Amino acid sequence: MEMMFVILIGAVAAVLANMNIAVFNDGLRPIVSEHLEGRLKRRELGLTAFAMSFGLVVGFGIPFTITASIILIHSILLGTDIIGLMTPKNKWGTAVAAIVGGLYGWGLLIGLEGFVKLFEYLPVNFLEPMGEVGTPVVVTFMAFPALAVAMQFSVKKGIITFIVAALIRQLAVFVNNSEFLRIGDNVVTLNQEGMALIAGMIFLFAFAMREKADEAASVDLASIFSEKVKQIKKNVAFFMIIGALIAGATNLLLMAGDPISLNLLAEGKQTDAGIAAAARAIGFIPLVASTAIATGVYSPVGFTLIFVVGLFVPNVWVAVIVGAIVIFLEVMLLSSIAKFLDKYPGVRNSGENIRSAMTKLLEVALLIGGANAANMIAPGFGFFFIAGFYLLNEVAGRPIVRMAVGPVGAIAVGVLANIFVLLGIMQVS
Fold first, then answer.
1. How far apart are CA 26 and CA 349, in angstroms?
2. DSSP 125
3. How buried is 12 (Cβ within 10 angstroms: 0-12 exposed, 13-18 middle, 19+ buried)?
4. Which residues pair with 183 in a beta bridge?
5. What is the distance between the alpha carbons of residues 119 and 391, in angstroms, rounded to a whole number?
6. Which of 67, 1, 2 is nearest to 254 (CA)?
7. Of residues 411 and 97, which shows the higher confidence score?
8. For the purposes of burial, counting CB atoms within 10 Å of the CB of 267, is it exposed (0-12), middle (13-18) or buried (19 or more)?
9. What is residue 127's three-state secondary structure?
């Protein structure tokens, strides 16, 4: 059953990309729209998709998938973007996209199992230390609303948001240690990072909603892009299928929608992963909705609420049904969301700032995590390698995205450690 979920997700996602209905890479949606309007040839579209997504698959999606033994959704859907857009949009091309996309999903899952078994035979099994890559991510994630506030409104407001979030976190720690909260004889434990994250998000949206639209300068998104919204609604059945599949696969703990919830799942903290996924989904609604309304091209994961469904619903088949319903409601409410974003341009603009804040935070957290993991694998040498790797990557113009330097560097140290042991210049600790 697990295999079928992953194969079907790969096949359906590749078909959606091939038919120009949905792509996962946010930056690709406007480019697909250019192709739909006849300003970009199919070949150029495919090459652009490859250039934009291949590095992220290899340098971002796959390393996280390996370190947590859970598929990060980026590793499969960025790949299906490439497969779908590089195959011709005709009957045989769509069929090829479905077959190759399904095989890609199958290969990803089989390869993951093979990797885990391979590590057991290595002189230095560095799979467990690789878990350290995500440790700082979980803790630092609560700071992203403060960074988004600072980027969009002011540094002063960002600092205030950060201080309040930090105080809320420590208050939650105090409440947990004091065992104040009880239901009968059972102690209720608050997730301190989750509480801080909620506080930060409240500040972010409070500031954003204070920025009202100027009636004279207001842009009616729903009216201007009504045909594009209709196009998305026409394909709602496709979105319901893939939404159902992804919600089900998430419920089976086969995949996660972001590095934060992925690392929490790897630690066995499913509820915390659900809270993190919910915060991310709420923050991404303005970005996904805006790009979808403006381009007529949706995301195969919608607003990412299907991951929240998968993590909180207790049964896989219930998750499948609820996932389909949730993504149906998302699509049907696009016009209403467009009107809301017109009314509160601050909320609309917050989408890009939230994404930028998350990216910056992950760059720092994953570099620290990668350095810690590398140093656990090869004490001393690990820190040296990650520092040099990061700086040389910067000087070279960042051929590897900053976010991936820590995970990729830690994997490289693990490989080098095994080579050193085989050469006799390093001892297994």
1. 15
2. -
3. buried
4. 186
5. 29
6. 2
7. 97
8. middle
9. coil
Q: What pairs with residue 71 in β-bridges? A: 255
Query: Cβ neighbours of residue 208 under 8 Å, at least 6 residues apart?
Result: 152, 344, 346, 347, 349, 350
pLDDT at 49 over 70: yes
Identify the H or E element spanning 247: helix 236-251
Contact 3, 106 (CB under 8 A): yes
Q: Record the tokens describing residue 343, joined without a space.
A: 């009314």
User: Can you tell me the distance from the alpha carbon of 259 to that of 278, in angstroms, rounded to the nearest whole number?
Assistant: 13
Supply 149's token pair: 């506030």
Q: What is the pLDDT of residue 59?
A: 64
- Contact call for residues 290 and 341 (beta carbons, < 8 A): yes
**Alpha-carbon distance 330 to 311, whole Å?**
18
Q: CA–CA distance from 344 to each of 127, 214, 218, 319 (Å)?
A: 46, 10, 10, 32
Q: What is the 3-state secondary structure (H, E, C) of 166-180?
A: HHHHHHHHHHHHHCC
pLDDT of residue 216: 47
Residue 187, strand partner residues: 182
User: Would you state the structure tokens that stand for residue 93, as one six-digit string?
Assistant: 């091309």
Q: How far apart are CA 193 and CA 284, in angstroms?
A: 19
Q: Is the pLDDT of residue 224 over 60?
A: no
Amino acid at 422: L
Q: What digits encode the pLDDT tens for the residues 244-303?
A: 999 999 999 989 988 878 888 888 888 888 888 887 787 677 667 767 776 788 999 998
pLDDT in tens, 83-94: 999 998 888 889
Q: Which residues lie across from 22 on neighbouring strands?
A: 298
Q: What is the mean pLDDT of the chain?
A: 83
Average pLDDT over residues 109-127: 76
The full DSSP string for 86-123 is: HS-SSHHHHHHHHHHHHHHHHHHHHHHHHHHHHHHTSS
What is the DSSP-derived secondary structure letter of residue 214?
A: P
364-408 pLDDT tens trace: 888 898 899 899 999 999 999 999 999 999 999 888 777 778 888
Contact at 8 Å (CB) between 104 and 10? yes
Identify which of 176-185, 186-195, 218-227 has the greatest average pLDDT.
176-185
